[in-house]
Amino acid sequence: MDKNREALTAFYKKALTVNTETTPTAVLTEVLADDFVSYGSVDSKGKPALIALVEFFWKLIPDLKWEPQDIANDGNKYVVRCMASGTPNGDFMGIPTDGTKTFNIMSIDFHTVIDGKLTSVHHLEDWATAMKQLEV
C-alpha cells in the first residue's frame, strides 16, 4: 500500500475509530500536515482543533467507528465514502443521550494527501440523521 493510502487508513481506522492501540493525538499528529485544514459545511479547523474534537468524540462516543466503504482517487485527491456509527453518552449536538441509542450515518470526504500527509479535507456528515436516530 502506498503511503498516501496508509495515511488515509490510519486516519479512519486508528484516529477516528475508537480503539485500544492508539490515541487520536498520536495518530493525527503523524498523518496530518502541520498546515492541515478541515473544511466543514459551516466552518474550518486547523490541526490542533481537529485533534481536540476527535479526542472529545472518543470520550462522548466510546464505540465510535468510521468504516470506509469506497475510496476513489486521482493523483493526490481522494474521495472516501464512510459509514459512521456510535452510541453517545452525554450531550450530543444538543440532544441528551444516555448510551442506549446508536446512530448510523454516511459521510463523504474529499482529501488532499501529499507524501503521506493529509493536507486538507472537505467533509460532509449526515448529522441530521444521527440526531433523529438518537431522539427519544
Description:
The protein has about 140 residues and is an alpha+beta fold. About 30% of the residues lie in helices and about 45% in strands. The chain is built from four helices and eight strands. The strands form two sheets. Strands 2-1-8-7-4-3 form a six-stranded mixed β-sheet. A two-stranded antiparallel sheet has the order 5-6. Strand 7 (about 105-115) and strand 8 form a beta hairpin. Helix 1 (about 5-15) runs antiparallel to helix 2 and helix 2 (about 25-30) packs antiparallel against helix 3. The chain is globular. The mean pLDDT is about 95.
Topology:
Layout: H1 3-16, H2 24-31, E1 32-39, E2 44-46, H3 47-60, E3 65-74, E4 77-86, E5 89-92, E6 95-98, E7 103-114, E8 117-125, H4 127-134
Helix pairs in contact: 1-2, 2-3
User: Given the structure, what is the number of helices?
Assistant: 4
Strand fraction equals 35-45%
Task: Kindly report the oligomeric state of this protein.
Answer: single chain
Q: Summarize the amount of helix as a percent range.
A: 25-40%
User: What is the distance, rounded to the nearest whole angstrom, between the alpha carbons of the first and last residues?
Assistant: 44 Å
Count of beta strands: 8
Shape estimate: globular
Describe the largest sheet.
Answer: 6 strands, mixed
Report the radius of gyration as a whole number of Å. 15 Å
N-to-C order of helices and strands = HHEEHEEEEEEH
- Poorly predicted runs are none
On the 0 to 100 scale, the average pLDDT is 96
Strand order of the largest sheet: 2-1-8-7-4-3
The SS-based structural class is: alpha+beta
